[in-house]
Amino acid sequence: MYLLAIETSCDETSAAVLDGPSSILSNIVLSQDAIHAPYGGVVPELASRHHLESITWVVEEALEQAKVRLPLLDVFAVTQGPGLIGSLLVGLSFAKSLAYYFRKPLLGIDHLEAHIQAAVLEKAGVDYPALAAVVSGGHTSAYLLEQELDFRLLGRTRDDAAGEALDKVAKFLGLGYPGGPVIERMAGGGNPRAFAFPSPQMSDRSLDFSFSGLKTAALRWIREEGLAADHPRLPDFLASFEQAVARIILENIARAVALHCPRTLLLSGGVARNKRLRTEFEAFAREQGLGFFMPSPKLCTDNAGMVGALAWKRYERRGGGELDLRMNAYPRFIVPTEQLRRKKAR
Ligand code: KG4
Ligand code: ZN
Q1: Which of 128, 172, 224, 315 lies 20 to 30 Å (CA to CA) from residue 65?
Q2: What is the pTM of this model?
Q3: Whose CA is nearest to atom 1 of ligand 1?
């Protein structure tokens, strides 16, 4: 069986061909970073226009690299949401047209659940329940998976996402876009204890995240110290800021672990490329005696391979799929499918 997956939720146009749940034959990712860099963030209208220009040849390239022709595809999958609505609609309409023309099933996939799947597709042996942290530019959330594919949201950010905080601070300092990789590079050699940052104060029961306090504190330091791209203390500041982002995520994840007693910890999303975060999560999992899984760096940021991997699992689980032409894109987070099903059953 061959599956074609398409991902256009934000500013990456991506297509992948799979011939198994962990067997990605091709995974083409066309980044629009250079297009959005002058603005210091993603411009939604530009993103959808560029998806429209690129989608055809990105899909063609994915097919060519996988050496699979369109009529040989058995299943189509596409990111349904959350994401930028214009961007999502380009991928969704393209996937719908292909599935309709070839009379094949189309599966709509949740972007955040696909990020989580990326953490478990390269290595077997996940012991459930698993606690998953998804840390990206648009989202920072914690999920509990009692078993495979059973995604239950525990908490999410009430304001900025972790990646958004990194991107905004980099923009404020004029360091470029996306901010996460630039900050990581420039923080190298800096002292992570040089600048103090607060932790958000949440009520005891909430597992929500918050990064707006951190961002405000960062902007205050920048103003007070007159920090700029060429300031000698910049590496110290960036290392401290990067460390604070990791600490805030991990503090909340530690509370979630204490509450839900998982056997495994998963880390995914674009910010999971960050070495400091990867090392800290790994050390925490070891200390807690938890299994630990995270994607290799190229599968952390948005890519259609992870969408295809989740779609394949769902297709297998359901014993097939159908083409629903009424399927629509959703811009905001929605309650995970399984969580909703369980709620209804209660
Ligand atoms: O998952 P992703 O590709 O897109 C969303 O779904 O949001 O994540 C993009 C985010 C951006 O905020 C970017 O700055 C961040 O991931 N990022 C990083 C690194 N590489 C990408 N953050 C920290 N360190 C990195 N090396
Ligand atoms: Zn993403």
Answers
A1: 315
A2: 0.94
A3: 270
